[in-house]
Amino acid sequence: MAKSMRSRTGRVVAGLVLVGALAGLVLVIRSAVEQRSWADAEGVVRERLRSGKSYSVEVAYRLPDGTEQVVTLSENGPARNPGDRVTVRYDLEGGRVVAAALADNDQAHWVAGGLLGVLALGAIVANLTAWARDPD
């Protein structure tokens, strides 16, 4: 395996996997940090919806100006039932909500970040193996 990894193709593939894993990791971390900077509000689950194997919840919450927002959000954390109180993070631009997510939606970022981190470590090892000198 080390012989094929030290070939030109092996080195290129190892480099591309490393660049892809690091770029994905940066995007996941950036997205998680951006969501944490959004404003938040308490909301109430109105309905739990199922689409195939995934669930989403319809949540009603109020903005600081008093207007009520109703939005359907993906449910990545624990199961929620109608009437449950949740915290919603939202991003305002020009007085309009442009994005929203459940506050405990961080689990998806942790999973994706962990997987990409393991992939990046594996790619680093593959690159070290691919570019190492032959033992004399």
Instruction: Write down how many β-strands occur, each being a DSSP E stretch of 2 or more residues.
Output: 5
Mean pLDDT: 85
Task: Report the order of strands and helices.
Answer: HHEEEEEH
Low-confidence stretches: none
> What structural class do helix, strand and pairing data support?
alpha+beta
Tell me about this structure.
- With 136 residues, the chain is of the alpha+beta class.
- Helix content is 43%, strand content 33%.
- It contains three helices and five strands; from the N terminus they run H-H-E-E-E-E-E-H.
- The protein has helices spanning 2-5, 8-36, 106-131; strands at residues 39-51, 54-62, 68-74, 85-93, 96-102.
- A five-stranded antiparallel β-sheet has the order 3-2-1-4-5, with no helix packed on it.
- The longest helix is centred in the first third of the chain and has 29 residues, at 8-36.
- It starts with a helix and ends in a 5-residue tail after the last helix.
- The mean pLDDT is 85.
